[in-house]
Amino acid sequence: MKTANKFQFLGLCLVWVMLLSPASAQMVTFKTLDKVTAKISRLETEVGRPTVLGPLTITVRTCKTTPPEEPPETSVYLEIDESRESKTERLFSGWMFASSPGLNGLEHPVYDLWPESCKMLADDVLIGKE
Predict the structure, then answer these.
(1) EC no. (predicted)?
(2) DSSP code for 100
(3) Each residue of 75-130: pLDDT tens digit?
(4) pTM of the predicted structure, to 2 decimals
(5) For a disulfide at 64, which of 22, 94, 110, 126, Cβ 3.0-4.6 Å?
């Protein structure tokens, strides 16, 4: 195979990998439930930026969503810490899935949360499942 053909082939493979892999997002939307007041609300946070929900600190490490032509799925890797009496304890570290909120859910007596959608910033325009 000629060198130019090898580079074309590798470039084509790279394009296919990029097209077939889920897109990484910059913003994540969660639904939250306060079990005491039965209030459901939305929480929007940026990937990598800690967000506070009561005594919980939620830090999203990555959020991936499938392209529109595939069955919808949003998966989020996050860490949740709880601060009590100047002590911080890691409550959750792992993946959460929008299609299966009960699978790897947060176990907390007051708060419940599950991912809803990922959004990407592209030329200062938010795109993604809403």
Answers:
(1) 1.3.99.1
(2) B
(3) 999 999 999 888 999 999 999 998 887 777 788 999 999 999 888 765 433 444 44
(4) 0.71
(5) 22
